[in-house]
Design brief:
single chain, about 140 residues, mainly alpha, 5 helices, about 85% helix
Length: about 140
């Protein structure tokens, strides 16, 4: 189910690079972030009624946006520092990306688990409500 989204990220990354080369970093970063935001809004709105097809299609949109903007963010950030510090900058950016992913995953898991333990409804309903609230939090962060 997630394989097509991986392809979308791989296809949109060089497209973002071409846009970066032609127009600068602003356009691909804004386009990519907008695609991610649209996907998160779609997940948030329909969080309680997700189907496998819907998840796959919206995740393709999300990963396309990530593919388009993440490489451009890193390339743009690394051009600001001198060439002698680019290896340290690359290490710092990769570390921050992993750290942010771990924090985001932990927050999402905490929101879903809190809803499962505090709501007095069927477990699948509490999980759906928690998932929708987690997507809402991710949408606000985006």
């Amino acid at each position: 189910m997630f394989l097509p989204a991986g392809f979308a990220g791989a296809i949109f990354a060089p497209l973002g690079g071409r846009i970066l080369d032609k127009f600068g970093a602003r356009k691909p970063i804004l386009i990519g972030t907008s695609l991610c935001l649209l996907a998160l809004i779609a997940f948030t709105i329909s969080g309680r009624h997700l189907t496998n097809i819907f998840i796959a299609l919206v995740y393709i949109l999300y990963m396309g946006g990530m593919g388009m903007c993440m490489g451009c963010v890193m390339a743009s950030a690394l051009t600001v520092i001198g060439k002698e510090k680019q290896s340290q900058g690359n290490a710092i950016l990769n570390t921050l990306q992993q750290f942010a992913g771990a924090i985001g995953t932990s927050l999402v898991a905490m929101i879903v688990a809190a809803n499962q333990s505090h709501l007095n409804v069927v477990r699948r309903v509490s999980k759906a409500i928690g998932t929708q609230e987690a997507f809402g939090m991710l949408t606000l962060v985006c």
